[in-house]
## 1
Amino acid sequence: MSRIVVLMAIVAGVVLLADLGSPANDVASGQEGPAAEPAVEAVKQVRERGAPVAVLKARTNLRAKPGGRVLAKLDKRTEWRSPRVLAVVGAKGKWLRVIATELPNDRRGWIALKAASLVANPWAVRADLSRRRVVVTRNGRVVYRFRVAVGRPGTPTPRGRFAVTDKLQIAGGSPAYGCCALALSGKQPHIEPGWQGGNRLAIHGTRLTQTIGRAASFGCLRARDKHAYWIIKHVFLGTIVEIRP
């Protein structure tokens, strides 16, 4: 079996814009007035430079709503030991609404603002299933595009908005995953009988280049190794990947 190692997991080349306190206690203080909306102001500041992502500073709770029921405990690092970086899709009071692997594909959770540092991310990725194409933008401009294989009819690629969680290199490569994989927060609900490779979605390389442009995968987006390596090298952890019909 090919060995998987983390590749370039650090969010490099960006500036921490909001490092707001200790994550030891994630209970809101109940302040009123403008000071009661620090998350909204912090996200607004970051959006001037790019999409906001939250880099966890310590283990924290993922909640159903601000101050609400705990859905999961989020460690500072992922299962593949990458820094835990979450795409931020909303804010309220002292809380950030985020995309997290621990939740179903269409659900979002909340973390305390002080549990994370906010970073501006210029990258975004869009995958068009009908066109079998991935488009990468930086600051709103298209900088790269490539063809992919998508899920076959019995294991279709899930649609929706996901986020990059890990950058993985497959030591020695493999026929199925090629050189490397960009792991996403999303999960495949339609598992092929007998498949033992897990349910996480990814954009990954392949040595089965004859499948590019076809509906041939178990749900992931397969790319030529050179394209997979490019996207892994450039986009940041926490980058939103929108998969469209």
Note: The chain has two domains: 10-121, 123-244.
## 2
Amino acid sequence: MAGNYIEAIIIVLMLFIPLIPLALEAWWFWYWYSYGDITSAKLHIIETVIGTLILIHIIATIKGHLFLGFLFIPIPLVVWFFMKKSEEKIDNLNAMFQEKAEINRLLEIIDKATEPALLYKALVELGDLYVKKTEYEKAVGCYRQADEIVKINKGKGLLGLSFKIQQAEKENRVKKGEIWVCTECSYDNPRDTDTCTNCGHIPKLLKSARADIVRQKAEIKKDIIKSLLAVVLGAFGIAFLLTLIHSLPEGPSVFISLMVSLFIMYIIMKQLITW
């Protein structure tokens, strides 16, 4: 008689434990939707997935598949993760196509333009696009052509065009590795110098060997302590897991499904949420 009560309690627990996180996930996505972070179409997809999973879980639990519901817990997050990633890829592709179309449009204007003002404007805009794409050599070429148009026609150009040329040339030299810019004073330094010639600052990527040796000693001590701690905790952890597996009503199946679900949830939440 007592065994039947225990079995009934286990079934009830296995039924309701997965329902709690699934319900929380449904509320979480609805909460995001109320703040405009999720579109109604995506919300309907996610809520339909969660509702279907709840129904399947209830049926599976009634039929004796007690562990199956734990595997359903991370599925809504996985679906949302792939929806988010696909949306980012689509946005990037759209931006790339729009950028390419804009470049082609400006190139066509430059090829056919007869008015200096129109040609000048198109060259400056094209240079700005090349800067955005980090194609600084092309940007410098566009800016210089625009500057030549102003000089030839003795007109007035943008006040900041000379600054655009200087910045594009500077970024191009940095990109090629000819110079590096000090993060403290913004001074341009030759690539063969380890310290800023203006303020003496040492960049993080160019720390001296002496500083590295001092830091390595402290890191070695920390690594030894961490390794010993990992071995001790690992031994206790394995013993605890083996004890837990043998104490579960369905053997390792419930435990494995629970651990897999929690691990997948951790990975997805780590990707989606930043503080």
Note: The first helix runs from residue 2 to 34.
## 3
Amino acid sequence: MKTVRRFLTFLIALLVVGPVASLARKHAHKHPRKARAHVVRRHGGRATVSDTLPLSFYAPDTLHQGRATYYRHNPKGGACTLPGDDSLVVAMNGHHYGNATLCGACIEVQGPSGTVTARVVDRCVGCAQGSLDLSRAAFAHIAPLSAGRIDVSWHVVTCEQDTVMELHRTANSSKYWSSLQLRGHGVPLRSLEVLVDSTWMPLQKQAHNRYVSRNLPDTPWTIRITDVWNRTVVDSQLAPAAGRSVPLRGRFPSLTSTPGSLSLVR
């Protein structure tokens, strides 16, 4: 008798639970589990982002509004991976950071107590659009540190302290793969190209402000640098060793100058 009851219980479970489990599987297939939220750091970030900001954004007479805070700047470099001991630096909000277009450029920030010019060296992931995270030294130029968070306006300017542009080849570069970085340019950059068989080959820019390629010819190179206003600097006979920088003979003029091209061939 017990055996019959057990058999009937098993049969009922098979007829009832089976279709329900099958339906659940179908439902799960149509509505997959949502991915967990990705936790990001306040500064940095390595994902490549397309730069879709309009040209008017970079105009010296275009004012942007936001809020500013301050942080302890790491002189070893932020998201822009730029070395240096500049104390007047800023981390740009993620929206305006784009694909590192502003890295190495300067902005002028107006606060309650004054104005400061700061170089963009980092990315502030937690900042709202238009907002900034300034180094303590830069923040102190426009408000007391005790203020903590302030309203600011800012616009893009030329880094007038930059006198020499450099092409840097990172230490892990080889003849099979190269990572290059431009330094001391002082303006927002659009592209870096290398002349290969009479054709300009653009290098892929990464969000950490380096241009990479697996197809570079042997040195010396001829390069063309273009800023966001399509002004160009061309230089040749460049042969940077891995981990070294070479100076360039061209330099972008101030943003108040008439846009044009600078062609310097050694």
Note: The domain at 166-263 is CATH 2.60.40.760 (Immunoglobulin-like).
## 4
Amino acid sequence: MNGPGALAGCCARPRSQRPPARRIFLGNRLARLADLARLARPLLPLLALALFFAAPARAQLSIEIVGGAGTTIPIAIVPFDNESSYPLGITGVVGADLARSGLFRLVDYAGITPRPTRADEVKVGDWRARGADVVVVGAMRALGDGRVDVRFSLVDTGRQAELAAMSYVVTREQFRATAHKIADVIYEKLTGDPGVFSTRIAYITRQGTRFQLIVAEADGFNPQTVVTSNEPLLSPAWSPDGNRLAYVSLENKKPIVYIQSLATGARTVLANFRGSNSAPAWAPDGRRLAVTLTKDGGSQIFLINADGSGVQRLLTSPGIDTEASFTPDGQSLLFTSDRGGTPQIYRLNLGSKAVERLTFDGSYNVSPRATPDGKGFVFVRRDGGRFNLAIQDYATRQVQVLTSGSLDESPSVSPNSRLILYAAAEGGRGILAAVSSDGRVKQRVVAPAADIREPAWGPLPR
């Protein structure tokens, strides 16, 4: 059985009828791992893995808005003065970022003459007549050393006030990054939440028997291949500083956890114990990870230092414990376990070792991901024959179902807790999708001619 149903199938049996733990599919990620291991044909008798540093990937993601918020902020983004002198400008990227969030509606600037370039040149009456609540203006000026001075202002037409004004001195190669920074500033000023347009995402693509771990900007641009393998790759996880990725590879015909530096391309083995090594999750301090190991016979969660030392078993139970996720304060772990007879989500207090069950609605709840704001967690639940994302609040225990696909899995929460990136199925292949934490904004993300899965949203840049 493929997908999340694999765990449900095994865990629904009475405990006395179960096969040995080492033969049970351990959660939805390990179910996929076992399926992929059977499907992937070895093309070479030797190790079939290639490591790349900043190698451009061929397939760029395409992101489509398929549902927006009920109320949007009307914003006019005026092309910056002198922007036409540069093939890759700034304002087009800023507008695309804000529109993609589903929270903003772009207001047409055509016909406004002269175009304002500074806050004091914005005639608020003209813009309010067009329905714009806020206006972005700016300018780009070439400097003698080849760099460019980029300045912008954000103007509130209702209050007739300048909300933000910033400048950046950048190279032309930094235009996109600068545009993302500007969009982040605008987003935070108008919503109160940090923008995530400057973040990166990681994901796995599959074409035939070729697997790639790819890192791209949050809008899908500039994909870079980190790892290419003829054996399955799984479970990418970002370090808190955004400089390293942990992931699982089957290149040696068994799951092994690696850590790879994105700056140097250097790779180290984190966990290669007897049996299965899987489901890496970084602690907020970046010094330790939680991993699922079967080295002692059953599937259990261990802590391990980032250099592979100091392995410490956290739990002892007769059931399957897997898919750990640290809470943002680093004091607790969320995890999936069938210790109660069906797969449910639990919380382990790392100090007291107390374990608390968190999910009670339904017989199948897996893949918990703590939200960075500390208020709750996202997870996968089965409803009938469908697997969907849901979010649960710690304080109220209220559960809201966010998606309605047939096989929605592998959730990854944005650093501002407002969007969830996840894997979905469409037309017989894997795609990525995103949904807001209130379920209103929906995005569809595809890569041409490739299955795409296992998304991981990187941290805010430091």
Note: The longest helix spans residues 175-191.
